[in-house]
Amino acid sequence: MKRIMTRSLIVWFVTFAFVAGIILLGVRVVLYHGDWVQQPYNGHIISNGGLARAGKITDRAGQQLAYSENDTRHYNSDLTTREALLHVVGDNNGYISTAIQSRYSNSLTGYNFVLGLGIPDSLRPNSDIKLTVDADASRAAFNALGSHKGACVVYNYKTGEVLCDTSAPSYDPEDPPEINENNESEYDGVYLDNVISSTFTPGSIFKIVTAAAAVENIPDIYEQTFTCDGYLDVEGNPITCEYAHGTQTFSDAFANSCNCAFGSIAMQVGADKMKETAERLGFNKNDLKMSDITIATSHYDATGAGDNYLAWSGIGQYQDLANPTLMAMICSAVANGGTATSPYIVDDDGKLLDKLGIKTNKSPDISMMSADTASRLRDLMRGSAEGYANNRGVSLAGLNFCAKTGTAEVGEDKDPTSWFVGFTDDPAHPYAFAAVVVEGGYGIDAAASVVSAAIGELVN
Amino acid sequence: MRRISLQVILDVSVLALRALLPIYALVIIYQCFASARRHRRPEKPLVTLEIKETGQKIPVLFWENSIGRSKGSDIRVSDISVSRDHCVLLRRKEGWFVSDIGSKFGTYVNGERAEGRAKVIIDDEITVGHTTFVLKRGEEYQERLRPSWFFSKASDKGSLKPYKLMILITFFHLFMAVEACFSNEVQDYVPLLIFGAMELLMWGFFFISSYALNRVNFELEALACFLSGMGVMLLVRQELRSAIVQMIAMAIGMIAFAIIVKFIEDPDRVNSWRLAIMIAAVVLLAINIVFGRVQNGAANWINIGGVSVQPSEFVKIAFIFVGAAALDKLQTKRNFIEFIIFSAICVGALALMGDFGTALIFFATFLLIALMRSGDIKTVILALVAAAFAVFIVLSIKPYVADRFSAWGHVWEHVQDSGGYQQVRVMTYMASGGLIGVGVGNGYLKYVFASESDLVFGLIGEEMGVIIAFAIAAAIIALAFYSRAITTRSRSSFYAISACCAAGLMVIQSALNIFGITDILPLTGVTLPFLSAGGSSMISCWGLLAFIKAADERTYAAKRRAPANALRKRGEAV
Fewer beta carbons within 10 Å, N or C terminal of chain B? Predict the structure, then answer.
């Protein structure tokens, strides 16, 4: 019997393995319960127990963006406002995973791990969420985007409050469309918030990054001159300008958005230094956040790609990809003497800390460049802005704005993507902005008019 | 305004009740095992062996004791003329016996060579090699023995009386029934009817067990009633018919439990039935393969007169029967080889049906039994190599089998397809339940396929809270420790092996179930003991519990006490 008793300890081993598994499961439950709950199929959230009785979402002025009444979820009364803020607010089905109704549904539905979602309605601690956005500015920007795919984000670079945030294409959350084979091209990418989750080829706006790398790495960059014949041949695949800019200084080349000059500057800086600056400015980073929502990773890397591609990467082509929010953050760093303000969109999530004025929803600010580099970039961007200050559609003239336009080639058969990024250097209106219009065409009209529509609304 | 405040008061009380249930469940499970640790006889030797030549006294602690030269012998004799495993000294109802297990020079009782089992009485002389033992009473040995860690000391205060434990459990089920009556979707009194019928059944079993069968302890049965009853109450709001079927299965399980406990009272009787049980099990599996119908990818069901039966569940009981044996039978080679062949047939048949989860349970249990019987690592390694080989062959002939487990580890990429559909919902709804649950009948997991059987752990987590779900896992863990602890007092190695392996089987099955549906292991579709809906599974769990019950020394104690009292009344010496 003694022998069998000793051998029976094997049951202990089996049991210990089981105990270990149970502990692992327990740890997972504790760590991930919040994510597990927030699933679009969760019956407690989508049916009578959830959003139908969730708290209100309002904009900075108190306009109701989403609210529940008689067990039904309703959205803003104005169709365009609903569409403009669909990606910020979300829909009933939770299809937009970065939207507030998806990300903050724990707060909205009153979920907590102790009580679960089975709290009787009379005791449900559902809380309202107040956003920083201005519904009217977002609506104006969405209107200006027209039928184009695109995005516009404007935020206060002193405080981090996101004021305008809109993404197209969109749909009415009050009456969501049946997306089928016939209309799926119209709704292509409709569930993606282009402000947060998309990246686009940056084109000329990337010259801000290249300029930063040049200022930091080439001591005599302001003494150099760049001669543009409208044509820069590097190993066969030529970079072109619309016309020959002639001989220019560094500042002129930036204002002219001279491709030939910036292609050669990128080669002068070198792929490693280019990458180092780009990464300090937030490229290749996957931990940037707007409130609790992770921003899509922007991409820059030309190491080992050869001079030709390095030149192309310096003017925002090659494999470069930029997220609109990151571009606005880079502009905020320029405006703020080198430090980018992290944007936040949730002003008050109803939790205690927020009520005490401690902003739990804002990430720490990010130091991107030296104050000297920032001031030089500001001058460059101011110079660039002066070139189109009088253009039609740009009503920012009074705000001393600094900006850069971009036109990114995305393929032979497609119109280029239009960009407009920058900031207003005005203490009363400290706005950093980025707008992107897919297939918006050449020139600054498309993207710049979206930004001016939004800022026009904010200033009034 | 007054109506609203009334609603708030009602809601607060419902919530308070729900918050108390997890604590209540923990108390019940604790009490079941607290009771199992008590009511033990003091640690004393059963008899004493006195070495004739030296007068040295050796305590005999077990009901079956090996005598031999090898290190692991219970009574070790370092004498070259004694075989490594020489003989077994064992106690049966009729008294003490000594049984030679193929020693070289034989075992002698009072000078006569013992053939088979030879009866020995106090003051008889047992001779092995050059050593002669004299059988003496247990009281002859005076030194204190070290008690087991699991059992409380004899002086500890008494535990909860069985009927009080049953009252606790009844109230727990009542709370569940009341909660189910006020569920969000349906409000009626059906749960109370089911509750009434079930408590009648449980209390009937309790009274029969205590008064007709004279069982002194009831904690294992109470635990099984608690868990089974919880399963039934969860089913009421899901599918009433299943709840009733489950209750009937519970009744059959209780009968099976009582019969098996009675049947294995004499471990030697089991041995003579061994072959019959083996053949019956093989025939059952053969019928299943021929007439089985495919359900959820596995052909492990047969239909008998409109009732679906899962034969493999009953084969589990037969498997334990065949695997375990008394100490003097354990040593024979034939016995072990028969068992290996039987195991191979069982695992093979299950794999053939496509029921890989159950096949895995059988295989793991086989390893447990093999290790406990022979302690032979070689056999285990051989079995593992053979199994790996078999898996390799299956995967190369039928590569699609692997597809069934392909979503393992990344189920969140398979939210809407069969690879991860069930697992992600289990996790989502478990988290939705929080610590205290959303209330019986208020869950959404119940709309997911197999939620009442394979996914029941998630259902408990959602409707009754994560604490109760984990408490159930803890109960199964405690059951395994208890089974191992009672082997020290088992009346035969048959009970020691069968109890440990029955508990081990339940732990393995629970692990495959709980970890399968939460993506820690691949999903194999096995049931959670006592809680999953399914008549066959319920009956087999009660059957397996009978082995653990039988291993507890106290189980058959009442029987022996009764005649002893009768003798005492007549004024005779005991």
Answer: N
With b meaning 16 or more CB within 10 Å and e meaning fewer, what string describes B144-162?
eeeeeeebbeeeeeebbeb
Integer Cα distance of B178 and A335 in angstroms: 65
Look at chain A and report how many structural domains it folds into.
3
Confidence label for A95 from pLDDT (cuts 50, 70 and 90): confident
d(Cα A411, Cα A203) in Å, to the nearest integer?
12
Kindly state whether residues A109 and A169 are assigned to the same domain: no
Q: Which pLDDT tens digit goes with each residue over A25-42?
A: 999 999 998 888 877 788
Distance CA A84, CA A73 (A): 18
Secondary structure of chain B: what % helix, strand, coil (to 5)?
60, 10, 30
Predicted ipTM?
0.91
Highest mean pLDDT among A9-18, A186-195, A285-294, B151-160: A9-18
Whether residue B433 and residue A115 make contact (CB cut-off 8 A), yes or no, is no
**Is the distance from CB of A407 to CB of A419 less than 8 angstroms?**
yes
In the block, tokens 């050869």 appear at A306
- Across the interface, do B518 and A25 touch by the CB < 8 Å criterion? yes
Task: Quick: pLDDT tens for B272-331.
Answer: 888 899 999 999 888 888 887 766 656 667 776 667 788 888 999 999 988 887 777 776
Give B188→chain A minimum CA distance, Å: 19
Per the DSSP assignment, residues forming a β-bridge with B302 are B309
User: Of A4, A34, A114, which is closest to B496 when you measure between CB atoms?
Assistant: A4
Residue A116 in contact with residue A331, Cβ under 8 Å? no
Supply the pTM of this predicted model: 0.74
DSSP B98: E
**Polymer length in residues for chain A:** 460
Instruction: Note whether residue A314 is domain-resident.
Output: yes
Tell me, yes or no, whether A261 and A119 share the same domain.
Answer: no
Put simply, the answer to whether B15 touches A24 (Cβ < 8 Å) is: no
Answer whether residue A44 is part of any domain: no
Q: Tell me how far apart the alpha carbons of residues B284 and A35 are, in angstroms, rounded to a whole number.
A: 46
Interface of B with A in 477-496 (CB under 8 A): 477, 480-481, 483-484, 487-488, 490, 493, 496
Residue A280, in any domain of the structure: yes
B28 vs chain A: nearest CA distance in angstroms? 20
Say what the alpha-carbon torsion angle B535, B539, B544, B546 is, to the nearest 10 degrees. Answer: 160
In this predicted model, what pLDDT tens digit does every residue of A409-442 receive, in sequence order?
Answer: 777 777 888 999 999 988 889 999 999 998 876 6
Residues A303 and A420 in one domain: yes
CA distance A266 to A450: 30
A78 lies in which domain range?
Answer: 50-130
3-class state of residue B75 by DSSP: strand
* Contact at CB, B470 and A22, closer than 8 angstroms: yes
B437 touches chain A (CB under 8 A): yes
Tell me A297's DSSP state: P
